[in-house]
């Protein structure tokens, strides 16, 4: 399924374009985020990674996933959200972004949620860990709020370009 290309001022898909899409909810610190479930290949428990010399701190290293070497990014380190704690809830979300497979370490995952157009609000222009360029909007479910992240844009941004060279 292809996401329509119309966008809002922030550059991401508009609320009506993403409505009805399913989002995987995950936490980083005290905030809850959501990414398009279609980008998720699998979810794995956190395991030790092989560090790469001279890689930025947010790139934890690489793992071998069934014969494929996958770079792993720790999102808490990437967005300065405090010292990461690796416990039984820590997971690696394996993503498939434009044919590239990569891992994203998050504190925990909770569920998959389908959002209607009324539940998706534009992201306010303010300082969040994820720059507004990477935000689709805010998904509201009762008293819960998901910060919806454009994971394609985030993982293909220039500072993440290093991942490409590590995985090659």
UniProtKB/TrEMBL annotation:
Organism superkingdom: Bacteria
Annotated Gene Ontology cellular component terms: cytosol
Keywords for this protein: Cytoplasm
Keyword Cytoplasm annotated: yes
Pfam family, one: CheW
Boundaries of every CheW-like domain copy: 20-160
Localisation: Cytoplasm
GO biological process, one term: chemotaxis
SUPFAM superfamilies the record matches: CheW-like (SSF50341)
PANTHER family: CHEMOTAXIS PROTEIN CHEW, CHEMOTAXIS SENSOR HISTIDINE KINASE-RELATED
Protein's name according to its UniProt entry: Chemotaxis protein CheW
Biological source species: Massilia violaceinigra
């Amino acid at each position: 399924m292809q996401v329509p290309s119309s966008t809002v001022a922030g550059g991401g898909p508009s609320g009506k374009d993403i409505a009805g899409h399913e989002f995987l909810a995950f936490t980083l610190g005290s905030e809850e985020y959501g990414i398009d479930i279609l980008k998720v290949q699998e979810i794995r428990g956190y395991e030790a990674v092989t560090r790469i010399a001279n890689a930025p701190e947010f790139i934890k290293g690489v793992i071998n996933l069934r014969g494929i070497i996958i770079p792993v990014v720790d999102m808490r380190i990437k967005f300065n959200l405090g010292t990461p704690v690796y416990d039984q809830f820590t997971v690696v979300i394996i993503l498939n972004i434009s044919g590239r497979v990569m891992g994203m370490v998050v504190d925990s995952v909770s569920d998959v949620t389908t959002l209607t157009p009324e539940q998706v609000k534009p992201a306010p222009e303010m300082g969040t860990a994820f720059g507004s360029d990477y935000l689709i909007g805010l998904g509201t479910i009762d008293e819960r709020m998901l910060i919806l992240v454009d994971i394609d844009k985030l993982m293909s941004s220039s500072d993440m370009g290093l991942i490409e060279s590590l995985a090659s």
